[in-house]
Specification:
Distance between the termini of chain A: 14 Å
Order of helices and strands of chain A: EHHEEHHEEH
CATH topology of chain B: Transcription Regulator spoIIAA
Number of strands of chain A: 5
Distance between the termini of chain B: 30 Å
Structural class of chain A: alpha+beta
Oligomer: heterodimer
Number of helices of chain B: 4
Strand order of the largest sheet of chain A: 1-2-3-5-4
Helix content of chain B: 40-55%
CATH superfamily of chain B: STAS domain
Number of helices of chain A: 5
CATH topology of chain A: Heat Shock Protein 90
Shape of chain B: globular
Radius of gyration of chain B: 13 Å
Strand content of chain B: 25-35%
Largest sheet of chain B: 5 strands, mixed
Number of domains of chain B: 1
Largest interface: A-B, 27 and 21 residues
Structural class of chain B: alpha/beta
Shape of chain A: globular
Chain lengths: 150, 114
């Protein structure tokens, strides 16, 4: 499937950038004219992935969070990448309610929300090697109505 | 961000608007906990009818405040949940611990009636 458009974004792992990141990706996705629900799902999932990078990957230090988004006719692929401390046990981290930071009132629902709101979620990580979260969302409205595709 | 709060007897009514993510949740949490330092407060009603975005950071915020008021024998009510936030409440299981109402008035009437 042909890539229609592609963007890359890099920013410091500061919590102030969470809104910036999700709004930017949502605006990029909006080029395909998906439904508001689809846009809202993407915003929420990107917010979760970026927050994980800020809180867990870099903890009290600052690093760079990178987002690469590719837009296709009927889907978007968003990759959120950090070079932080990595995840020791990805399977465990993806379990609902699991959190390594209960003192910060983390609910442990970040990956569950990503998995519910997106169609595919892949996580590549290793201790000391950073993390890459790949989020895929199919624009079902555009699959069903091909004439709406640009 | 926290907009306004009113105290009515043993209940505080708080309005949160804008977006609730990890960045803003820390600020809102600190403000709520300042209010909850008043041990006379048992119940908290959080109106989010002007809240446009929430992720799992908001879930953690609600769970934390639920624990606080539960220890006092009180209740946490949330009012005005928009359709786009309903999914976060549902997936996270928040509906199991918060009482959801359309309006602040309904929430207060129910809390007082208990």
């Amino acid at each position: 499937m042909e890539v229609r458009n592609e963007m890359k974004l890099e920013f410091m792992s500061k919590s102030q950038n969470e809104a910036f990141a999700r709004v930017t990706v949502a605006a990029f996705a909006a080029q395909n004219d998906p439904t508001l629900d689809e846009i809202a799902d993407i915003k929420t999932a990107v917010s979760e992935a970026v927050t994980n990078a800020i809180i867990h990957a870099y903890e009290t230090n600052y690093g760079i969070v990178e987002i690469i988004a590719r837009l296709y006719d009927t889907k978007i692929i968003v990759e959120v990448i950090d070079e932080g401390k990595g995840i020791e046990n990805v399977e465990k981290a993806r379990e609902p309610l699991f959190t390594s930071k209960p003192e910060l009132e983390r609910s442990g629902m970040g990956f569950t929300i990503m998995e519910t709101f997106m169609d595919e979620v892949e996580v590549e990580s290793a201790p000391g090697m950073g993390t890459r979260v790949k989020l895929v969302k199919y624009f079902k409205s555009l699959v069903l109505e091909p004439e709406r595709r640009y | 961000m926290l907009v306004a709060a009113n105290k009515e007897s043993d209940t505080i009514v708080v309005q949160i608007d804008g977006e609730l993510d990890h960045h803003t949740a820390v600020l809102v949490k600190n403000k709520l906990d300042d209010m909850l330092n008043d041990q006379g407060i048992k119940n908290i009603v959080i109106d989010i009818s002007d809240l446009n975005f929430m992720d799992s950071s908001g879930v953690g915020l609600f769970i934390g405040r639920f624990k606080t008021v539960s220890l006092r024998g009180g209740k946490l009510a949330v009012t005005g949940i928009k359709a786009n936030l309903h999914k976060v409440f549902e997936v996270s299981g928040l509906y199991r611990i918060v009482r959801a109402y359309d309006t602040v008035r309904e929430a207060l009437e129910d809390i007082r009636g208990c």
